[in-house]
Amino acid sequence: RRGEPDKVQWRRAAGPLKMRLETKGRGGKAVTVLFNLPYDRAAAEKLIAEGKAYPCICTRGEVDRSASAPHAEDGASVYPGTCRGRFKSLAEAQQSAGRPAAIRFDVPAGPIEFEDRFAGKIVCDPARDLGDFVISKADGTAAYQLAVVLDDAESGITDIVRGDDLLDSTPRQILLYRALGLADRIPNYYHLPLVIGPDGRRLAKRHGDTRLSHYRSAGVRPNRILVLLARWCGLGNVDQITLDPLQKNFDLAKLPREKIIFTADDDQFLKTGT
Fold it and tell me: In DSSP terms, which residues pair with 113 in a beta bridge?
């Protein structure tokens, strides 16, 4: 979650095997992240023992092809609960399928409500809208939702600022915090609007090359990027700004609530600064 690691090592640390990632942080300082793989799997198996999760042998294709599978707003299939209550243990599931089983979280019925520090009050029904989700893959590694909860809880993360495309991950993660007995460590969430293309979709190759590296190699001055960011951040129609005043004047309350559209005019504005 901190970019491409410069070095990946495996080591024994206090007994269990951990994966060690080393990358360069701000100012060239090394940043080390440890992922405790046995701990992640143990947390998932503990949820099985407590009746909060279950083994699942369904493939993604089988879920997508299931006639009974409802669909989320983004078009993704909502798991229909095929393996819920089907197996008494991981071993039984593996024996039945002839391959290792994944582990799904049994999402409790009913709505969940939380306060997003930017988006406001959010109410959703994850059992209906999102369904039971994988928390441990068949290869034994933790899936995203469980991995971030365990990592953030262990790291003492108190505030999470991210794009609103991850807003529907929040109820899942809150449920996991509660199920794992970590409710007192649920962080504050801030989901900010994404920058999208004129077609309303996430910026991608279909919109042309919008990477910072592209504009840098094209000779665009950093100040043009900062001016565009300042405008998007609600700091007015500024013509000149440097990083220091941009940081000092940044205020979440000034950010727009709607998604920000990167237009052809924005692209042209940047390129006129070459």
Answer: 123
Task: Please tell me the predicted confidence (pLDDT) of residue 25.
Answer: 44
Q: pTM of this prediction?
A: 0.80
How many other C-beta atoms can be found within 10 angstroms of the C-beta atom of residue 25?
11
Burial 104-117, CB ≥16 within 10 A → b, else e: bbbbeeeebebebe
Residue 7 a catalytic site member = no
Average pLDDT, the chain: 84
Q: In this structure, are residues 52 and 179 in contact, taking their beta carbons and an 8 Å threshold? A: yes
Set 7, 29, 52, 205: catalytic member: 205
Amino acid letter for position 230: A
For residue 189, the tally of other CB atoms under 10 A from its CB is 22
The rounded distance, in Å, linking the Cα atoms of 274 and 269 is 10
Q: What is the pLDDT of residues 199-249, one digit of tens each?
A: 999 888 888 899 989 999 999 999 999 999 999 999 998 999 999 999 999
- pLDDT value at position 251? 94
**How far is residue 4's CA from residue 6's CA, in Å, rounded to a whole number?**
7
